[in-house]
């Protein structure tokens, strides 16, 4: 079949690939070029070599925002995926009101990031002042947990949908056969369902990984990096590099930081993809 | 079979090409297309509130002269991003704005020298031009004032008149008295000094202007700030936060809207803000010229008897040097028309509520603007907007952060942090801004 | 045995119900605030229900609709979302199928390129993207779908690849032995099996495109076109005064079409399950 397919390659691949080149590859390559320049707009860029990268690495705020982002990513990846999977398992059984629940849990994803950030900021500040704790702008811990909660609230529904689609593909015959063989609920879960939905797990873990690292709108809206940049994630740090000070060199530093960030996340995700892909079961 | 495949491939290619062609076909009408050599104008406007008036004005100009004028307004807080993106395109803006010397550092390669243009000659004073060496890179197009807005009716109920406040000591006495009697009066001295993004600029920039200004008056310069007047800064900040509608620890979440709404709901007498607030306060009739006034922010420094409102600008028009000759000329003509013609000056003065620093500006109906003019006529000296020399946004953020932390816990150590953000932060940011 | 199951089911239902109510609260807050009078919307009063004197009814909604080209932005948002989602679903599923079925170096490379495009922070490419789109004149609502296809291909191809793997090759091979060419195989067989996936991916992509603010601002010819998220931003004035009422109303109005689309799609997913997914 492969041979037959290969002749059709242009039809299947070309439209997507062409758009991909226009919409992504070319801007990316240009962006890469810009990371070695200082510029105001794309046209008046002047080459400065690797000095942007040196400045980016020396920037203490970059390393600290990186650390903060990693802490955030680890916790949110775990919590989102575990809870989403649990919900998906629950909602693929014949409980009453499954449809309603699915819609409700997915709702948060319907609203744009920045608006949600502001709503949650009001919510969390209100709660904090009720229990007498300093509010978000003064409270790094609350800022951290606030971000985690917000991220979970938004992403769980999204991931739940993917897990549901994956779980629906697990044939009931297999589960019945296992039950007949005497497997209890736990066994069915670990030995059958999870391996079968490994491809969904790959997708969801990868998505939560990239979403956590790239988080920007909600970070800006919920804490804005306060107090004193302690809750500033990488994307916000890059944004501040672009705009918080004026002068052509800052745009170049920002680009360099973005490239470094890219490379690191690509490496992390390569590791993750390999690990979970190897566990996928082809039906 | 093979034919079908070929047709399908051709079909898809055609669809994509058609997509690109539609773009090509419908994109004309941008500013750099030839209109028979007449040129056209593309203005990227900074202030969303005035967008409807600019659209109307642009239409009127086109009707009168036949020159095409497109006005696009960037969303609040997105001006720099939008400008950066638009300037990279083929139909780049011909008229845009910068906020002062700091913003100019980003855009000076794109600024046309306005010194020889007609509109430049209409300025009431050369001080309103933004210079890059000898060239006039930008000209101010709106002058605004800020100070402490007063609800004179409530002030009267508390037993005072605006004339009673002629110095910082007076301000302190009056506000502390009002706030100590706030239960009995039903209102207090100051509205909340919110430190969220929509309001903190009033204190980390506008209020911070005062210590900076007085240092310059003493002979200091933007190269290094020494913090000589930071004790006064502390006094007035303490006054704002300890005599207000909310606890100092709640400030971080209070917004600009909260503060304004408190003033509109008559919960406080004083509201630090600027002449741009006039329409917000009077539009639904809550306030009229009879119960409103603006007094200077007395700082306990300089000659308080001669201190006026803080007046200046953060908005300078710049023309895109890289645009076509015809477009540049059309833009200059448009700018000149806006500040000299009857319709232009009326729209900018009345409908937009601007005070424009040009010779043919009409008299404003904005009470605060009139008060500023009166005070100047009386011999009072307006406090200049020296905050335009603040080296970066980052400095403002640092000071803002420290102010908020101090408000939550008013210890001397926390104030030392504010001082450090102010003085050391300035040195750092200045160095960073000038490292080339 | 059955009794135990139904008790634990009931317990779960109750737990989920409570979770669902808490889950909805923030959205409920937006709804409440959208019917309050402007001056009653503040951080202190955010939680309070609109009282008699702060209830503004539909005034905010009317304001929002009447303002600043709401209907045309709605139209453009709709056009862009529909064209982009159709393009993404169609082209990316085809591409993903090819990449999964054909085991060549090129297809592997393609896969990784698509996947890594998802990792790139938008700030790095936003200005260059805006300039590229401008040069190619892909900056109108009628052809911006090409940009969205290119930019969104990463996510879609990635997800489709995952699901295509779970389609047994035997069915396809059987079809080809019967004389179908790959195109027919794909459209007649795989497309049907992938329906639930299509719906899921479609909804996710639609969410993204509909709510996206930054990309249209930078890529569209803003002299002529606006989308709804761009419009919402205009309710923030330059001195920090946010017209909260109309803004909240606008947000509610943009959320409702999506809810409708989602509810409609929901039924389809259930149908897919009932009709039976392809089993081994």
What is the name of the CATH superfamily of chain A?
MetI-like
Largest sheet report of chain B: 6 strands, mixed
And the CATH topology of the largest domain in chain B?
Answer: D-Maltodextrin-Binding Protein, domain 2
The CATH H-level superfamily of the largest domain in chain B is Periplasmic binding protein-like II
Give the biggest beta sheet of chain A. 2 strands, antiparallel
Poorly predicted regions of chain B are 23-36
- Summarize model confidence as the mean pLDDT of chain B: 86
**Overall spatial form of chain B:** globular
Termini gap of chain B: 65 Å
What gyration radius of chain A follows from the Cα positions, in whole Å?
23 Å
What top-tier CATH class of chain A fits best? Answer: Mainly Alpha
Output the radius of gyration of chain B: 25 Å
Task: Tell me the β content of chain A.
Answer: under 5%
CATH domain fold name of chain A: MetI-like fold
Number of strands of chain B: 12
Approximate strand percentage of chain B: 5-15%
Task: Indicate how many domains the architecture of chain A comprises.
Answer: 1
Task: Please provide a written account of the structure.
The complex is a heterotrimer of chains A (about 280), B (about 425) and C (about 280). With about 280 residues, chain A is mainly alpha-helical. Chain A has one domain: MetI-like (MetI-like fold, Orthogonal Bundle), CATH 1.10.3720. Chain A is built from 13 helices and 2 strands, in the order H-H-E-E-H-H-H-H-H-H-H-H-H-H-H. In chain A, strands 1-2 form a two-stranded antiparallel sheet. The longest helix of chain A is centred in the N-terminal third of the chain and has 32 residues, at about 60-90. Chain B has about 425 residues and is of the alpha/beta class. Chain B folds into 2 domains: about 35-145 and about 315-360, Periplasmic binding protein-like II (D-Maltodextrin-Binding Protein, domain 2, 3-Layer(aba) Sandwich); about 145-310 and about 375-435, Periplasmic binding protein-like II (D-Maltodextrin-Binding Protein, domain 2, 3-Layer(aba) Sandwich). Chain B has 18 helices and 12 strands. Chain B has helices at about 1-25, 50-65, 80-85, 100-105, 120, 150-155, 170-180, 180-185, 200-205, 210-215, 230-240, 255-265, 280, 325-340, 340-350, 365-375, 395-410, 410-435; strands at about 40-45, 70-75, 95-100, 130, 135-140, 145-150, 190, 270-275, 290-295, 305-310, 315-320, 380-385. In chain B, strand 4 (about 130) and strand 5 (about 135-140) form a beta hairpin. In chain B, helix 9 (about 200-205) packs across helix 17, helix 14 packs across helix 15 and helix 17 (about 395-410) packs antiparallel against helix 18. The longest helix of chain B has 25 residues, at about 1-25. Chain B is globular, with a radius of gyration of 25 Å. The relative contact order of chain B is 0.15. Mean pLDDT of chain B is about 85; it is low at about 25-35. Chain C is mostly helical. Chain C has 2 domains: about 1-60, no CATH class; about 65-235, MetI-like (MetI-like fold), CATH 1.10.3720.10. At the B-C interface, helix 1, strand 2, helix 3 and helix 12 of B face helix 5 of C.
